[in-house]
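Before a computer can learn anything about folding, someone has to put a protein's shape into writing. The three-dimensional part falls to structure tokens, numbers that each stand for a local backbone shape. The protein below has been through that process, and both of its lines are reproduced in full.
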Amino acid sequence: MRPVLEVADVFRLHGAEYRQAHSDHLGGTQRRVMAAIEACRTATLGGHAEQCTDCGFVRYAYDSCRDRHCPKCQGLARAEWLEARQADLLPVPYFHVVFTVPAQVADIAFYNKEAVYGVLFRASADALRNVAADQRYLGAEVGAIAVLHTWGQALSHHPHIHYIVPGGGISPDRTRWIPCLPGFFLPVRVLSRRFRDLFVQQLRTAFANGELRFPGALAEQADPTAFAVRLDKLAEIDWVVYSKPPFGGPEQVLAYLGRYTHRVAIANSRLVGLEDGQVSFIWKDYRHDGKTKVMTLEAAEFIRRFLQHTVPDGFHRIRHIGFLANRYRAEKLALCRQLLAVPPPPTSLNDPTPQRWQDRLRELTGQDVEVCPCCGGRMVTRDILKPQPQPRPRMWCDSS
């Protein structure tokens, strides 16, 4: 069922005005994302007409934009991704580890997304692998799934990475599975310092290679001396890394992954109002014990906050490291199962047999689009609807 209010509604009502007001610095990716969300599941993209063979009910189904920033397009993508991950699960505890950068870094990242988000992935992954490989802590090769998030509950720019990590790893001689201590993965203070040192070092390298830019209020940081001073200060403060207790089992791991992997800046379900040029949405204030509140923003400010979480085209928000890295995943997971003395996953989990999209949707999401919502009869395709050009927004109303 369609939510009462969607991000697309905000874009359709106020997007043209926002584009005009911010034409000088609205990037190509942001323009494309706005257009995709506005057109998603409308006549603009085309689709098909369905009719019930029993009662004659007619329904129009329009195509999706499939943009990864669109709140409406993540359900099936999430389900398919999670299905593929079932074959990767091991019968061990899993931990949730989060790496967060200070606000001073978030400012730089906003104008240098590809470079700084890349540093965030590399530094956090290196910290995780290096500390885990240290004999003082675990002494093993670990694997993990990493997911980049850039938002807080109020849509502020807050880059951080979530890692879902099996609690243990492969011994250096590849002859043993080394489990972590019960209820404990790695020391977060050690992880935090290692992450900070690697990040600052890699950010220095990015600056030296001319990979960073400093527009507007950050212009003074373009001076090498000023930037070096800033990095020195960052290297002296504590950075935030935390690790949550292990999950209860593989099912909980998949459920948790589903809430993080294909999430966008804000779900349509959190929107509660769009009136008089203002958008209201639900958010959790974690500074006050996660209390649920309602925030109201001018439509332009809501759009600005949403668009600041677009990521560059081709940038991967979900990555795999260690023994879960794509290149060696099948080989090393087979070794992990051998060391854990557990059988391989059922072959059905790796069955690539293609199915019609209706079958996949029903299997993965529980939604049966072939059932008539009126009488329970069978819906069949009646007509193919060609894409239609998006209508120009009306600027006035003829009352005659």
